[in-house]
Amino acid sequence: MRRNYDLNAELTSLRRDLHRMPELSGEEVETATRMANWLRDCAADEVIVGMGGHGVAGIFDSGEPGPTVLFRCELDALPIHETGTPEWRSAIPGKGHMCGHDGHMAIMCGLARRLQQKRPARGRIILLYQPAEETGEGARGVIADPRFASIRPDFAFGLHNLPGMSAGHVGLRAGSFCFASEGMEIHLAGRTSHAAHPEDGISPAAATIDLAARLPKLPSELGLTPEDGLVTLSHMRLGESAFGIAPGESWIMATIRARTDEVQERLMAAARDMAARAAAAAGLGIDISTAERFAACFNDDDATDILREAVTETGTPCVELDGPFRWSEDFGLFGSVCPSAFFVLGAGEDHPQLHNPDYDFPDEIIPVALAVFERVARGRCG
């Protein structure tokens, strides 16, 4: 490495370049190429591309027996038009890194630089740049990729920045960390008629209104509190935009969330049953589809202790969280592969919220996360 090298400055520049050129889930071609080139420049022993879509994995192998430890970040941006005005604002209208994945990638690239400077003494370290987190497809695709077997980890770690928490503070807890979630679309089909003679058709209006009122109450009907599960209506449409037609179709979209995968399955089954009964009672056809499925994120006790130790050793302020977050993270699927743990990193108490159009990742917290991840890596692999 060259003298007078400023890693923080390099990572800040990288993060801002990534922010300028966001790519949506499943479209992360240029971003993935840049990350693969970065890993090669950091002398990774192997770089795997095209994992589960556009995923990239960098392998730093000591050649000695030891654990395989995986660190994961995300490649994708969001279909949100940026309204903030930094010099590095998005150059692509309607697309933006409004969730901070550009910052997460910069942190991972910093870890690659650290591993270039000092190789692991035992085992392997895997740096995974995962695609399509925002749709819930990325982790599933990576794990299903046949090449994942060759890098199957003994531990997996990840993070997400969190506006509303003091900048540079870590939030951590064992057990439930993020809710499971899945989107459900219910299509009810009847028969249109002239608006002057609605009795000649089969209108889905009453059933649609009934479902719209009852679906959000479903968790309480199952004895669940909002801290265990919730149903949120996200979109509805009844018939066509015309005064002369009594409607023959309707669509209801809802997001269903739960603290655990088991409760999530109960809610999904109950929602399907409720919709089917409403359709049958009204003489309507029904079609139900789902999308954006996220497993619950559950922090393993041992993996959480490893993170907590790293946070303590780096002198990073830490908050023990009272309960899980209602938002979802597809990192949870890695818990089905190995012991895993996830933490949040404060982006600032007054920072714009995730998915806000003026959100921008705070560069000053990059070194904090990098220090924690490197401490974990050195503690496991030397």
Q: What would your notes on this structure say?
A:
- With 382 residues, the chain is α/β, with parallel strands linked by helices.
- The chain folds into two domains: 7-176 and 296-381, Aminopeptidase, CATH 3.40.630; 180-294, Alpha-Beta Plaits.
- The chain is 30% helix and 27% strand.
- The strands form four sheets. It has an eight-stranded mixed beta sheet with strand order 1-2-4-3-5-16-6-15, sandwiched between helices. Strands 10-12-8-13 form a four-stranded antiparallel beta sheet, covered by helices on one side.
- Helix 3 links the parallel strand 3 (68-74) and strand 4 (124-130).
- Helix 5 runs antiparallel to helix 7 (261-281) and helix 8 packs across helix 9 (366-381).
- The two termini are 20 Å apart.
- The mean pLDDT is 97.
- Pfam families: Peptidase_M20 (PF01546).
- This is Amidohydrolase.
- Keywords: Hydrolase, Manganese, Metal-binding.
- Mn(2+) binds at residues 99, 101, 134, 160, 355.
- InterPro entries: Amidohydrolase, Bact_exopeptidase_dim_dom, Peptidase_M20.
CATH superfamily of the largest domain: Zn peptidases
Strand proportion, as a percent range, falls in 25-35%
Mean pLDDT: 97
Cα-to-Cα separation, first versus last residue: 20 Å
Helix amount? 25-40%
Structural class category: alpha/beta
Radius of gyration: 23 Å
Q: Could you list the spans in which at least 5 consecutive residues all have pLDDT below 50?
A: none
CATH topology of the largest domain: Aminopeptidase
Put simply, the count of helices is 9
GO molecular function: hydrolase activity; metal ion binding
Protein name: Amidohydrolase
Keywords: Hydrolase, Manganese, Metal-binding
Binding site for Mn(2+): 99, 101, 134, 160, 355
